[in-house]
Amino acid sequence: MLELIDLDKRIPKSVYQQAFPELETQLGACQRAARAAGVPVVIVFEGWDAAGKGTLINRLTQALDPRGFKVHPISAPNEPQRLRPWMWRFWKALPAAGSFAIFDRSWYGRVLLERVEELTPKREWRQAYQDIDEFEQQLADAGTVIVKFWLHIGKQEQKRRFQQIRENPATAWKVGKEERKHHKQYEQWLAAVEEMLERTATAYAPWTVVEATQGRYARVKVFETILQAVESELARRQAAPKAEPKPMAVPADSPTRRQTLLDRVDLSLALERDEYEKQLKELQERLFHLEHDLYVARVPAVIVYEGSDAGGKGGNIKRLTRGLDPRGYEVVPVGPPTTQEKARHYLWRFWRDVPKAGHITIFDRSWYGRVLVERVEGFCTEDEWKRAYREINEFERQLVDFGTAFVKFWLHIDQEEQLRRFEARKQDPHKQWKITDEDWRNREKRGQYEVAVVDMLRRTSTTYAPWTILEANCKLYARIKALRTVAEVLENALKKA
Amino acid sequence: MLELIDLDKRIPKSVYQQAFPELETQLGACQRAARAAGVPVVIVFEGWDAAGKGTLINRLTQALDPRGFKVHPISAPNEPQRLRPWMWRFWKALPAAGSFAIFDRSWYGRVLLERVEELTPKREWRQAYQDIDEFEQQLADAGTVIVKFWLHIGKQEQKRRFQQIRENPATAWKVGKEERKHHKQYEQWLAAVEEMLERTATAYAPWTVVEATQGRYARVKVFETILQAVESELARRQAAPKAEPKPMAVPADSPTRRQTLLDRVDLSLALERDEYEKQLKELQERLFHLEHDLYVARVPAVIVYEGSDAGGKGGNIKRLTRGLDPRGYEVVPVGPPTTQEKARHYLWRFWRDVPKAGHITIFDRSWYGRVLVERVEGFCTEDEWKRAYREINEFERQLVDFGTAFVKFWLHIDQEEQLRRFEARKQDPHKQWKITDEDWRNREKRGQYEVAVVDMLRRTSTTYAPWTILEANCKLYARIKALRTVAEVLENALKKA
User: Fold this and answer.
1) pLDDT given at position B320
2) B415 and B477 part of one domain
3) Distance between first and last Cα of chain B
4) What is the full DSSP assignment across A153-179?
5) In terms of domains, do B70 and B180 share one?
6) In chain B, which residues have their Cβ closer than 8 Å to the Cβ of A127?
7) Chain A: residue whose CA lies nearest to B194
8) Which one of A154, A221, A231, B238 is at 20 to 30 Å from A47 when CA atoms are compared?
């Protein structure tokens, strides 16, 4: 691919002086249009050392409204970043709708620097190709414009620039041991770059190779490419307005739907209080020690609670955490997204909250809202919830690949028990706040919710992150089963760590 | 995933007798609607031995118009199939627009039988996941409905059925050594099935797990699923009519476009006739031996010729093939697609013609028409040619993975030389047929074609299938360079074989 690049491409100064100011004006207008249309834009700069990334990014930002972009310089991961799945820091940096995120180096470091310098085992950087593709596809599906630049200069040109930089005392520090080493490895890098360009050039996130021998030429090409990409997304949105989300229809009465896996859940399972107290104490002690071992072994854990309204999530979580050291776990209650969260990919806030190595995060409701409440109430389009099963499986697989222990609970109660609990809450002045009109409305949509729950359980119960159904008509039984499941999963994870 | 399946799902006879005839009628109507709308439908049946695939497919076809479907029973590949990339036979079986293709077992055999029985090395069946995803995504992107069924029964139920089948002398032959062995390996199969379902469940080609203990239940679920999938694609097409293809605009005059990689091609390169004759003879002899060695080593080769009009493709191919044994190579001239070809994915006809192991196929024009003439003339939409670069790279990678040697030529001449040749053809009564009004029209669009050619060369010159540009102002030079390139590529391929 790169052998076809003409590294001598140039633009005469006179042409440049005429064309460039016009491009700057256009880019400013284009940024305003993207903001108005709520289009997030991700721009990636990768390239050879001394290819001119810094200068280019500088010129680019001068043309932009400073309130609408953020530059992310990416170097080796720091401590908090190393303690999380490798994609975490890039998810965190995603731009809100209407903003530009400019990456000075990026997630491609995984298959460039980390590959060439052997900082990452081969198994891991090869897996990175899939992680990257999933990441970019998820963003693009949600309407993000992705522009990726590879700034290309030849080996001789790089040598020439290094000399120039070193001769100037003000810049000499820029060329150190690292850079000289990379220069010597030019051919190894080239092979890595070629493979990267081949494997990650997609229709939704294409690469643009920029001939960077002449700064003028590179600037014009970068500006033109960004303009074209953003304008093409704006045109696409105008031509094909987003499908209207609509609430789920009442499920058709089909003979294959009359009995679901939830009907098979044995809700008669129960536990006496004596037995409960005894087991609870034992399990809480066991979990306390496990939390400590987890910390020492640097194994992270995710525990997801989903379930019917009034299924007993809160009480269950309380029993789980009661014996734990609060420095080792965090409970993340998940409600409707904030304005800041709504402006980003729906998985963004969950990536933000993934546990660091050695810690436990308990999600009280979770990303599964996408295929439950958002599907049923029509807060997202059919396309969106349909592809969410795969996106969720990809998300969880990336966490598991990092070594995360995964527990997912569905607390199930039957209709009668739910009604009984609703009524009890209405009577009890201390619990009245827990029951709202929305709960009653949801109850009317039980049929739709049940279809959504069954689809969710079947499509997202994977070998690496399976669901556990908690028979929750008896709260005591459900709590003991939950604590025991967590203990077993953590023990297994520790064995493998 | 499969642990959540309720294998005891049943439908009472009375309900079935009411619901099923209605479903059959609906499916017939749905097939007619799909035909009218030109929607191709691919239905895959996978499942345990004795899960009832045969009976199900039988009932399904009874509900369909026999002119509109074809059943493809898939067993171990035969000789012609083994001699080609493994996906070849599935591409060949693709349905035309408006037809149903029903697969009784499918490409998933690669990650099931071939994995469990260790018929394929691990490296190969793991790679198959990517091949499968590319295949299904390419079909779905082009509007194919893909429905995949996994017929699920438990180990005990399978045992019971095997006994029943063996007790009946008319069916006893159906349970042989193979089936008994698979039954013993139930757990190994289960692991393979789980991984397959997890890795290949996409929004565009979802799996439906069918509880197949009761035939009635399975039938109803299969019919309902197909109906829903086809109807949803029909609704989608009505709601969002396909974008109108439009011819490429005259490229904007940008300072970065003024000089392309084609301008760097040194068209002064030439060869004297004496030298030409001498080298030609040597190269033709060398190629004759290489063709034979290729056959013995079972290495296939693909040679693609693309180039400017009047660039000299025909004469070049003639010199290449003159010394070859005609049993070992084939020239495939590529013109506008036939009706049969138009009704299928644009890559279908090229998959059909890939060489078998040990043979050479020379394509006189090729799949690159998608990103050249179809892009420039507006025979396909922007979405279509934009994703074609990746599709083509995927296609070529699958051939290279099979061991195919790849040569791709772009014959380049400049405008003056082209004009000279056009005029010469006009004068020569033996060559007048070679020059048409279309050639003159294409010449007027030279600017657009050049942009398309440069994009093509850069985006599809991969490490595994790079382009070779032939400086073709001097025909003799271009011929010698072509023959030498082919010889070198074949020699390298033989060394690696």
Assistant:
1) 95
2) yes
3) 41
4) --HHHHHHHHHHHHHSTTTGGGS-HHH
5) yes
6) none
7) A463
8) A231
- CB < 8 Å to A191, chain B: 463
Task: Provide the residue range defining the domain that includes B155.
Answer: 2-239
Q: Is position B245 within any domain? A: no
Residues of B in contact with A386 (CB under 8 A): 203
Distances (CA, A) of B268 to A80, B44, B265, B413: 60, 56, 9, 10
- Cα A29 vs. chain centroid, distance in angstroms? 30
pLDDT band at B173 (very low <50, low <70, confident <90, very high): confident
pLDDT in tens, B89-143: 999 999 999 999 999 999 999 999 999 999 999 999 999 999 999 999 999 999 9
Domain boundary among B177, B206, B239: B239
Could you tell me the pLDDT band of residue B258, with boundaries at 50, 70 and 90?
A: confident
B280: distance to nearest CA of chain A, Å?
27
Quick one: B177 and B305 in the same domain?
no
Contact A6 B261 (CB under 8 A): yes
> What ipTM, to 2 d.p.?
0.80
Tokens of A206: 């294409």
Residue at A13 is within a domain: yes
Q: Is residue B381 domain-shared with residue B456, that is, in the same domain?
A: yes
Closest chain A residue by Cα to residue B232: A382
Mean pLDDT of A467-480: 97
Summarised one tens digit per residue, pLDDT across range A29-48 is: 999 999 999 999 999 999 99
CA of A241: which chain B residue's CA is closest? Answer: B240
Q: Are residues B277 and B162 in the same domain?
A: no
Interface A:B, Cβ pairs < 8 A: 107
Do A178 and A303 reside in the same domain of the chain? no
One-letter identity of residue A174: K
Is there a single domain that holds both residue A79 and residue A157? yes
Give A119→chain B minimum CA distance, Å. Answer: 24
Tokens of B197: 């379902």
Residues B353 and B206 in one domain: no
CB contact under 8 A, B1 and A259: no
Q: Give residue-wise pLDDT tens across range B404-437.
A: 999 999 999 999 999 999 998 888 877 777 777 8
Residue of A nearest to B218 (CA): A256
**Residue B381 within any structural domain of the chain:** yes
> What are the tens digits of pLDDT across the range A220-255?
999 999 999 999 999 989 887 777 888 888 887 788
Where are any strands of DSSP class E within A252-317?
Answer: 301-307
Domain count, chain B: 2
Contact residues on chain A for B221, CB-CB shorter than 8 A = 256
Question: Using a CB-CB distance cutoff of 8 angstroms, which residues of chain B are in contact with residue A203?
Answer: 383, 386-387, 389-390
Residues on chain B touching A4 (C-beta within 8 angstroms): 261, 457-458, 461, 467
DSSP letter at A9 equals -
Instruction: For residue B304, list its beta bridge partners.
Output: B363, B408
Alpha-carbon span B308 to A423, nearest angstrom: 80
Query: Chain A residue closest to B205 (CA)?
Result: A387
pLDDT tens readout for residues A182-226: 999 999 999 999 999 999 999 999 999 999 999 999 999 999 999
Residue that has been written with the tokens 């239940």 in this structure: B217
What H or E segment, with its residue span, contains residue B227?
helix B215-239
DSSP per-residue letters across B406-441: EEEEEEE--HHHHHHHHHHHHH-TTTGGG--HHHHH
Q: Are B1 and A462 a contacting pair at CB < 8 A? A: yes
Strongest mean pLDDT among A303-307, B6-10, B260-264: A303-307
Considering only CB atoms, B4 lies closest to which of A5, A209, A457, namely A457
Q: Under DSSP, is residue B341 helix (H, G, I), strand (E, B) or coil?
A: helix
Residue B246 placed within a domain: no
> Is 0.90 topped by the overall pTM?
no
Question: Is residue B323 over pLDDT 90?
Answer: no
| Domain of residue A273, CATH code | 3.40.50.300
